[in-house]
Amino acid sequence: MDDLKQLAIELRHYIIDTLSQHPGHLASSLGTVELTLALHYVFNTPDDKLIWDVGHQSYGHKIITGRRDEFPTIRTYGGISGFPRMDESEFDAFGTGHSSTSVSAALGMAMASKLQGDTKRQHIAVIGDGSMTGGEAFEGLNNAGVSRANMLVVLNDNGISIDKAVGGLSRYLTRITASPKYNQLKEKVWVKLGGDKSDPGQRRTKSLNFLQRATFMAKTAALGAPNLFESLGFRYFGPIDGHDLDQLVEVLTQLKEIKGPKLLHIVTKKGKGMRTAEKNPVTYHAPGLFNAETGVQIKNNSNGKPLKYQDVFGHTIVELAKKNDRIVGITPAMPSGCSLNIMMEQMPTRAFDVGIAEQHAVTFAAGLAAQGMTPFCNIYSSFMQRAYDQLIHDVALQRLPVVMCLDRAGLVGDDGPTHHGAFDLACLRPVPNLTICAPMDEHELRNMMYTAQLPGQGAVVIRYPRGLSVHADWRNAFEALAVGKGRCLKEGSEVAILSIGHVGNDALAAAQQLEAEGVSAAMYDMRYLKPLDTELLDSIAAKGFRRIVTVEDGVKKGGLGSAVVEYFAQLRSANPDITIPPVAILGLPDSFVTHGPVPRLHQDCGIDQSAIVAAARG
User: Fold this and answer.
1) How confident is the model at residue 163 (pLDDT cuts 50, 70, 90)?
2) CA distance to 39, 49, 394, 450, per residue, from 347 (Å)
3) What residues form DSSP beta bridges with 462?
4) How far apart are the first and last CA of the chain?
5) How far apart are CA 464 and CA 480, in angstroms?
6) How far apart are CA 292 and CA 295, in angstroms?
7) If you average pLDDT over residues 110-121, what whole number do you get?
8) Is 293 a known active-site residue?
9) Where are the alpha helices (DSSP H) in 453-559?
10) Are strands 583-588 and 547-555 parallel, antiparallel or unpaired?
11) Averaged over 106-134, what is the pLDDT?
């Protein structure tokens, strides 16, 4: 126990020193250093099951569970993941790249232990960094509270996720932790139990019933109403200082002996131990390279470079909203990540951060659309998977004019398989009443956004990647696109390359390389997956190409290539005499893609320029 405080100092320094040179999620893991050590000190991991939610709080956990030497490889190709992964370590009880899953998973594990006759195993869900705002967390709490399962939920309350926490729960937790009446009574309780002066062994002999009774009195004094978590069936303890190792160890040791569902509310500071991160936890959530001594970020010179796609979106929605007073913006807890913060600053009443709640975001957008507004709902592609039913049931079925902007489509790089936007094209193509498009560059993104907000467009999905766009002169004059129409960017006679989205830039480069090598290659930017440009496909089929190659940065099964092959099959069925050349489908494989630099991942998946050239040659 005497060594834990020194270990906390060393662990925090090691995280800072390593991440200054090997970028990752910094501030979140700095805030959980003491909690990490206390949990592993008190509980018998990995036999006791520990789940981190969101998983980017777990860097300290990774370091002290056998991955210290590998830690500099975090989020690099061939290195360890930035999130817990069951196949990486037995200490990673559950994979948690997305948020709000831990309570449900811990409850499942606790019930499994109970059914297997194991009454000693502990099941701990650490939920924080905004994760408690996700709807699944409340579903899990509602079920767990009446389950009598042997589980502990540790609510890591740092008042922020990636951006500042929003919503009623955030205000509720603030009322608990900030009430003067509560804090005065908490201090009296701590003194009554012996405080820091008494022997730890003596403190542990104090009545747990007294502790809970006094805590309940404090909460009532603070809120004047029953506690939310106790109303759901949990025994609630706290809030306590999440950076006080002595108190953490003592309370966790006590809670270990209490059966049934329990919730410990701890208060931590995101970025703890690094002044710049404490002052600006949003920037230092994942700051990239920085000076370990000063904390100052090391930024690449971006002068003259294209904007990121997300920034083009952020500036464009403001431009459109100034002309169309029905436009509103929505994001589930990612205003800086998707650049909706630009609209929030300039039009605060027309931009909404709804917390980590993708399902709610989509249906909220549907409600706005039902009353005549034109909502642009921006969700990361892999997070959109969580609101699939809402897009079908609440938007598409009712033909509501919601514009879904899916950021981080395709492969996202270092965050890996939990965050790759691999499935959006294939998932959404079967849904009726949707228009689905993907820009090849930022000019197309702006035109697609402009077209989507015009009257009569219905539900529109625009998907675009993470990272830089194409042109430095990103601000083009708006042009209404012909919905469902592609374009020919290069004529040719031997092979035809069809692409959708940003990967079309590699496809165009491949066509130009083929031409230089003596192969006449045509290149088509399809723009729209749905409706598919069948007139363009008819003309391609009639031109006598010896080979057709389709390219997409989504899964091959069900995406653009599948759509093209399906249409050609219908064409051949209607016209048996027509000759359709072989079609090579390039896309992501039927497996989860690892983390690493996007160009390397494109190479591995066979969708880079050289792979396109090879496929076109046949």
Assistant:
1) low
2) 44, 45, 26, 18
3) 405, 437
4) 66
5) 18
6) 5
7) 95
8) no
9) 504-516, 534-542
10) parallel
11) 94
Whether the Cβ atoms of residue 337 and residue 407 lie closer than 8 Å to each other: yes
- What residues contact residue 494 under an 8 Å CB cut-off, 6+ apart? 519, 520, 521, 545, 546, 547
Cβ contacts of 116 within 8 Å, gap of 6 or more: none
Task: With beta carbons less than 8 A apart as the criterion, state whether 602 and 505 touch.
Answer: no
How many CB atoms neighbour CB 319 within 10 A? 16
- pTM for the whole thing? 0.89
Would you state the pLDDT for residue 165?
Answer: 54
* Ramachandran area for residue 600 (φ above 0: left; ψ -120 to 50: alpha; else beta): alpha
Q: Which parts of 371-441 fold into alpha helices (H)? A: 381-384, 388-390, 424-428
**What is residue 207's predicted lDDT score, i.e. its pLDDT?**
40
Sign of the dihedral through C-alpha 273, 277, 278, 281: negative
How far is residue 470 from each of residues 353, 445, 489, 597, 609, measured CA to CA in Å?
29, 11, 15, 18, 16
State how far the Cα of 426 lies from the Cα of 442, in Å rounded to an integer.
23
**What phi, psi does 202 have (nearest 5°)?**
-70, -40
Q: How far apart are CA 528 and CA 461, in angstroms?
A: 10
Non-local (6+) Cβ contacts of 582 within 8 A are 547, 548, 618
Show the tokens assigned to 89: 């370590």
When mean pLDDT is compared across 273-282, 544-553, 566-575, the lowest value belongs to 273-282
Q: Is residue 270 annotated as part of the catalytic site, yes or no?
A: yes
Which of 350, 386, 527, 556 is catalytic? The answer is 386
Catalytic residue among 262, 270, 429, 446: 270
For residues 550 and 606, what is the distance between their CA atoms, to the nearest angstrom? 12
pLDDT at 305: 86
- Which secondary-structure segment (H or E) carries 563? helix 560-574
